[in-house]
Specification:
Elements lengths: L2 H9 L10 E4 L4 E3 L13 E4 L2 H6 L3 E2 L13 H4 L3 H10 L2 H14 L3 H12 L3 H19 L4 H7 L5 H12 L3 H6 L17 E4 L9 H7 L7 E3 L3 E8 L2 E9 L8 E7 L5 H12 L5 H8 L6 H6 L11 H10 L5 H11 L5 E6 L2 E3 L4 H6 L9 H16 L10 H8 L7 H11 L11 H9 L25 H18 L21 H4 L77 H4 L3 H4 L7 E3 L2 E3 L51 H9 L9
Length: 692
């Protein structure tokens, strides 16, 4: 924006620009937000600054009427991927308070002197001045929102001494801390003592409109014990530099002003600035929704969705390392499946030191995942190995990324990892650094959302202005277009008619269509669907198509029913049937079969005999052999499994344990070492089968 665009914004008192720049008036010596209700100053007396720190350094103080420090942060720090934007993200996260200016410069890859020169040129203030402005804003928030002692607020805001705190408040606000607190409109309560973990309730400013759908996005991915979420609230535990913390955010759309209330159940006061910054990033509270919706609404494919859901937000992350693990687990599977895997993985985490009802566990660290967490995961071994490599790299420090990275930097760090591709990098960039121009074209939900888009109500798109499939016309806000497509796909799935995932049950056909069917296969419950392969039906009371047969009269009829016992391993599917243990029905002379030759279960007689693949015919019941062991889908009495015997001379004779001779069935020899001989050796020792 140039000077006159900004001047028109302050003349219109447009609240959309609050926090994006600051207006300093030379004749009064104060600086204001663009929507300040005071009289618009003359253009010749106005100077605009990118940050409040620049106005501080120029000798201006904050306006007491509009309180410019109480506005949302500027969205430029997410849009900009240069050194200034990356530095501001780290400063807001409290890096200078923890590591100093040298630590900030090291993270950005510059010397402290060069970093000071870059920030002074780009933002009008150096890193120390920017950090001081951030501390002043945190201190003002605590002074007007809580009753914590002033001395405790000084250290919680990041000041090294109470004297420095008093001087900064006086320079920035031209008031003492006590006078600034007196301007607050809240009920007085007894002062809170300084403790290592403090409970607070704060109001989070944001730019309207605000779509609470971000809470639903987080709720469906919430891990029990670590997170809780509803359509209007979100709570979780997290690990910060000086200890564990716990917070909850509630949105009340019916209250005046539709406030966002942050309830901090427990936090070390030294971690408070970092916690506030991460919560704001999680809910994308510094975004400019009006500017974003204006661009997205220009696309006819998204116009209806933008009108129905104004102010959509892009969820962030409170822990970059956790987000990478979640993204890698969620690749190529559904949200529900990823949540199930993460619930198992969360068992590797430690208990929170500040537990609450429903929030008692911390998400496991990279060290815990590398040591114990992978034993809890299921799925392809390559994915488990990829997670192990990523966790080990983060635990050892070989992989270090965070809010201060840009998209090319993330790609150079993450793409070399096994199991990490462009989708993972794009998703991490959206949620960790808030990259606004990421379009996940290969995402299944994005494709479903594109297919579910309503047609243009005015007709087809003009041929002279074709729309690109990657939505490049919406740059630099394609990440928000991705959020709209995800929302569209979810709504279309919810609106789809409910259909059962189980196919309708067809009338059950009798496995044995012969005069002795009731004797071979009595009517009893069948506990699973028989796919027609030999041995697939081996279950309790399963049909097994000849492997589980008993004659109703009992032992005298010479039948055998195989029932699995403890430790049984019943699996055929054309392989050797191992450890087949069971007992015959009725009487003390019940048989126990330990193993059955492969030929008895896998290969039909015509394949063993080397005869052509022909049709097996039994009274018009025809099935085509596909040449695989046990493939004859329509063979009934012929596929007798372990009951295979020498065919009878009568092709129409039906007896348990006999294969009728038909077209393509050749009579086999029955001597020792032949198929029939193997069958005898395996199953006749029990004296239960009428073989021969």
């Amino acid at each position: 924006m140039d000077f006159w665009q900004r001047y028109r914004a302050i003349d219109a008192r447009d609240i959309r620009f609050d926090g994006q720049f600051y207006t300093a008036v030379r004749t009064t010596g104060i600086y204001c937000r663009p929507s300040c209700p005071a009289r618009t100053p003359k253009a010749g007396n106005v100077t605009f600054y990118e940050t409040s720190a620049a106005a501080h350094d120029a000798g201006y103080r904050a306006c007491k009427r509009c309180l410019p420090e109480a506005v949302p942060g500027t969205p430029a720090w997410n849009v900009r991927s240069d050194i200034a934007g990356r530095a501001m993200r780290l400063i807001n996260d409290g890096v200078i308070n923890r590591d100093g200016v040298q630590g900030l410069a090291t993270r950005l890859g510059y010397s402290s002197r060069q970093l000071n020169r870059i920030l002074s040129h780009e933002l009008g203030a150096g890193p120390l001045s920017l950090a001081r402005a951030s501390r002043a804003q945190t201190a003002r928030t605590l002074l007007v929102s809580t009753t914590i002692k002033v001395a405790d607020i000084a250290f919680a805001a990041g000041f090294s001494s109470v004297r420095q705190f008093n001087e900064t408040i006086g320079e920035v606000f031209a008031m003492t801390p006590s006078a600034l607190r007196a301007t607050a409109r809240h009920h007085r309560s007894p002062p809170q003592a300084a403790v290592s973990s403090t409970a607070l309730t704060l109001n989070l400013p944001y730019r309207e409109p605000f779509d609470p759908g971000v809470f639903s996005f987080l709720a469906v991915r919430a891990i029990p014990g670590v997170e809780e979420g509803t359509s209007s609230s979100y709570a979780r535990t997290l690990r910060l530099a000086h200890g564990d913390a716990r917070f909850r955010v509630d949105y009340n759309a019916d209250a005046s002003g539709r406030p966002l209330l942050l309830s901090i159940g427990a936090v070390d006061l030294r971690d408070l600035p970092s916690l506030l910054s991460r919560v704001r990033r999680l809910l994308d509270l510094d975004a400019d929704p009006v500017a974003i919706d204006e661009v997205l609404g220009s696309d006819p494919r998204l116009a209806a969705g933008v009108t129905a859901t104004p102010g959509i937000r892009m969820p962030g992350a409170v822990d970059p390392q956790e987000l990478l693990i979640r993204a890698m687990i969620g690749q190529q599977i559904t949200v529900a499946a990823a949540r199930t895997a993460l619930i198992r993985l969360s068992a590797a985490g430690s208990d929170s030191l500040v537990p609450a009802v429903g929030l008692h566990r911390l998400f496991p660290t990279a060290e815990q995942i590398a040591a114990d967490g992978l034993e809890l995961l299921r799925g392809p071994q390559r994915r488990v190995d990829s997670l192990r490599n990523a966790a080990a790299a983060m635990a050892s420090g070989r992989l270090d990324f965070g809010y201060g990275d840009d998209l090319p930097g993330l790609e150079s760090k993450l793409l070399p990892l096994p199991g990490v591709g462009p989708w993972t990098v794009g998703y991490v960039a959206m949620r960790v650094i808030g990259a606004p121009d990421v379009f996940l074209a290969n995402d299944a939900a994005v494709r479903n959302g594109i297919r579910s888009l309503a047609p243009d109500p005015d007709g087809a798109v003009s041929p002279g202005q074709p729309l690109s499939p990657d939505f490049r016309e919406l740059s630099p806000w394609r990440s928000y277009a991705t959020m709209h497509l995800w929302r569209t796909a979810a709504l279309a799935r919810a609106a789809a008619p409910k259909t059962s995932s189980i196919s309708p049950r067809l009338p059950r056909k009798r496995h044995y269509e012969s005069p002795v069917a009731d004797h071979v296969h009595p009517r009893r419950p069948v506990h699973h669907h028989c796919p027609g392969r030999c041995g697939d039906c081996l279950r309790v009371d399963g049909c097994s198509r000849g492997l589980d047969r008993a004659d109703p009269p009992g032992p005298a009829a010479g039948g055998l029913r195989v029932r699995p016992g403890p430790g049984s391993h019943l699996r055929c599917r054309g392989r050797v049937l191992r450890r087949l243990s069971g007992t015959g029905h009725g009487g003390a002379g019940a048989a126990e079969v330990r193993s059955v030759p492969r030929a008895c279960l896998g290969d039909p007689p015509h394949r063993r005999a080397g005869t052509p693949r022909e049709l097996h015919r039994v009274r018009g019941n025809v099935g085509k052999c596909e040449g695989r062991p046990g493939c004859c889908q329509r063979l009934r009495l012929q596929r007798c499994g372990a009951f295979c015997t020498v065919p009878s001379g009568d092709p129409h004779r039906r007896e348990p344990g006999r294969v009728p001779v038909g077209a393509g069935n050749q009579k086999e020899p029955s001597g020792p070492g032949t198929f029939a001989g193997l069958c005898r050796q395996a199953v006749t020792a029990a004296g239960r089968l009428p073989i021969g």
